[in-house]
Design a protein that fits this description.
Elements: E1 5-7, H1 21-32, E2 37-40, H2 42-48, E3 57-60, H3 64-70, E4 74-77, E5 83-88, E6 91-97, E7 109-111, E8 117-120, H4 126-129, E9 140-143, E10 149-151, H5 155-161, E11 163-164, H6 170-176, H7 179-191, E12 194-195, H8 197-201, H9 203-206, H10 215-226, H11 231-240, H12 244-247, H13 249-257, H14 259-277, H15 284-305, H16 310-325, H17 333-348, H18 354-361, H19 366-378, H20 384-395, H21 398-407
Parallel strand pairs: 3-6, 11-12
Antiparallel strand pairs: 1-10, 2-3, 2-9, 4-5, 5-6, 7-8, 9-10
Helix pairs in contact: 7-10, 7-11, 11-14, 13-14, 13-15, 14-15, 14-19, 15-16, 15-17, 17-19
Length: about 425
C-alpha cells in the first residue's frame, strides 16, 4: 500500500469557495452515507494553478449501483469504465468508483494483446486508483472530510514547477491508452506546462499506436485540441512530435509539397483561437476545411490533368480525401457537408456578375467561404485583389454596390483587367 503526502488545509490553496455548490452536495452526501469522497483531477489542479475549473469530478469507494441508489438525479454511463453522472440542471458532476490495478482479463477487465485497455471495470481503493490516472497533476485528491489534499505521486510539486509528468512507464501507459499522448499536448498547451522529458521522448516511438483508437474518439480529441483556445499551439506541438501525421496523413503530406497548405491551417487556428477568446461561436467545419484543403487541391490537380471538368474534379477529389480521412478521424457528415460548401464557394467567389454576386451574398455559407478566402490570401495564395473586392463590396450598398459589380465584369477570374484589341485602320 502506498503512503501519500498529506497537505493540510493550511498548506494548499484549494478552498470550498472555488468548488461548485453541486459538487459539494455530492461530496457531502457520499461522506454522510459512510463512503470515502474526494474531489479529484482537473478541478484540484486548476484551483492550485489559480484557474477557474470547468468540471468537477469526484472519486469514491461507492460502487456505481450504490451511487445510483444514493442520487435519484443520476444515471450510469460508459462501457469501458462504468461511472455515474449526477445532473443538476445543466451541470453534470461525474462520480467514478476507485479503480484497481489488474493483470490480464479478470474481474471486469479486458486488455488487448498490444496492452491497450478495452474494458476497465475493476474496482479498488484510493491507493490503487491513483496509479490508474494519467498525469501527476491530475492525481490529486481533495478530501471533503478534513479538506486536506492526498498526493501519492508528487503532483503538488509538479503543479508548483508547472511540469506535466506521466505516471508510470511511458511504454506501458501509452500502450494502455495512446490518447494519453494527445491529452499531454492538450494539457501542456492549455495550462502552459512543460512536458517532462520521459513523457515527451516516448511520443515518437508510440505515435503509431493512435491508429488503434476508434475514429470517433479521435474526432472528439481533435475538437478538444483545436477548440481549446490554444489550438495553434496544439497543432504546432502535434507537428513537432510527429503526431499530426498519424491523425491527418493526407494533410501532413500536402504540407511537404505546398507550404501554403501549412500556413492556411496556422491562419485558421489563429483565427479560431481569437474567436474563442472573444467568446464568439466557432464551427468545427472551418478547421477541417483548412486542414484538408491542401490534400483536396493536390487530388483535384491530378484529375484536371486527365481533362475532367473542374467541377467534377473537385467532387472526385473531395470524395477521395474524406473517404480516406474518416477511416482515421471520423469527421461527421454534417461537418464534411459544410466543408464541401466552403470549398465549392472558393470557385464561385471568382464569378462576379450581378446575379451571381447577389445570390452569393444571400447564401448561408457566404460568410464562412469569404473568411476562408481571406485566410488563403494570408497563407500566400495570389488572391488579394479578389479578397479586397469582396471586402469592399460588403461595405457598400445601393448605387455604389451596383457600380462596383458592373465594373467587375471587365475582370476575369485572376483579377487582371481584360485588354481589348484595337481595330486596325
Amino acid at each position: 500500500m502506498s503512503t501519500p503526502t498529506i497537505y493540510k488545509r493550511s498548506q494548499h490553496s484549494v478552498s470550498r469557495k472555488r468548488i461548485s455548490e453541486n459538487a459539494l452536495k455530492v461530496l457531502n452526501r457520499l461522506d454522510r452515507a459512510g463512503y470515502k469522497a474526494f474531489l479529484v483531477g482537473g478541478a484540484v489542479r486548476d484551483i492550485l494553478l489559480e484557474r477557474d475549473p470547468k468540471d468537477f469530478d469526484i472519486a469514491t469507494n461507492a460502487r456505481p449501483d450504490q451511487i445510483l441508489e444514493l442520487f435519484r438525479n443520476s444515471r450510469l454511463i460508459g462501457r469501458r469504465f462504468r461511472l455515474a453522472h449526477v445532473r443538476f440542471g445543466r451541470e453534470v458532476i461525474e462520480v467514478a468508483t476507485f479503480r484497481a490495478r489488474h493483470e490480464g482479463e479478470k474481474d471486469g477487465a479486458s486488455i488487448a494483446d498490444t496492452g491497450r485497455i478495452i474494458r476497465d471495470n475493476v474496482y479498488g481503493d484510493i491507493d490503487e486508483d491513483v496509479w490508474r490516472r494519467d498525469f501527476t497533476v491530475n492525481a490529486l485528491y481533495y478530501n471533503i472530510r478534513d479538506h486536506s489534499i492526498l498526493d501519492y505521486v508528487g503532483g503538488v510539486e509538479d503543479v508548483r514547477r508547472r511540469e506535466l509528468r506521466l505516471i508510470g512507464d511511458p511504454a506501458v501507459r501509452y500502450r494502455e491508452d495512446p490518447v494519453r499522448m494527445l491529452r499531454a499536448i492538450r494539457f501542456a498547451t492549455k495550462l502552459k506546462l512543460k512536458i517532462d522529458d520521459a513523457t515527451e521522448e516516448a511520443f515518437n516511438r508510440y505515435g503509431m499506436l493512435l491508429s488503434e483508437i476508434a475514429p470517433a474518439r479521435l474526432f472528439d480529441e481533435s475538437l478538444k485540441l483545436f477548440h481549446s483556445g490554444h489550438g495553434l499551439e496544439a497543432f504546432e506541438a502535434l507537428c513537432k512530435y510527429g503526431l499530426f501525421g498519424h491523425l491527418y496523413p493526407l494533410a501532413d503530406q500536402s504540407f511537404g509539397s505546398d507550404r501554403r497548405a501549412y500556413k492556411l491551417v496556422v491562419a485558421a487556428l489563429r483565427n479560431t483561437d481569437h474567436r474563442l477568446k472573444q467568446s464568439q461561436s466557432v464551427n468545427p467545419a472551418f478547421i477541417f476545411a483548412a486542414i484538408l484543403w491542401g490534400a483536396m487541391v493536390k487530388r483535384r490537380a491530378r484529375f484536371l490533368v486527365t481533362e475532367i471538368p473542374e467541377s467534377e474534379a473537385f467532387r472526385l477529389a473531395a470524395d477521395e480525401v474524406f473517404s480516406e480521412q474518416i477511416k482515421i478521424v471520423a469527421i461527421p457528415r454534417r461537418f464534411t457537408t459544410t466543408v464541401r460548401e466552403i470549398w465549392h464557394f472558393q470557385a464561385r467567389l471568382s464569378k462576379r456578375t450581378r446575379k451571381h454576386v447577389e445570390k452569393l451574398l444571400g447564401h448561408l455559407r457566404f460568410r464562412a467561404a469569404y473568411d476562408f478566402l481571406l485566410l488563403r490570401v494570408e497563407a500566400g495564395e495570389p488572391l488579394k485583389e479578389l479578397g479586397d473586392w469582396w471586402t469592399k463590396l460588403q461595405e457598400l450598398d445601393g448605387v455604389d454596390r451596383e457600380s462596383m459589380i458592373t465594373e467587375s465584369r471587365a475582370l476575369p477570374r485572376n483579377g487582371r483587367r481584360l485588354r481589348t484589341k484595337r481595330k486596325r485602320t
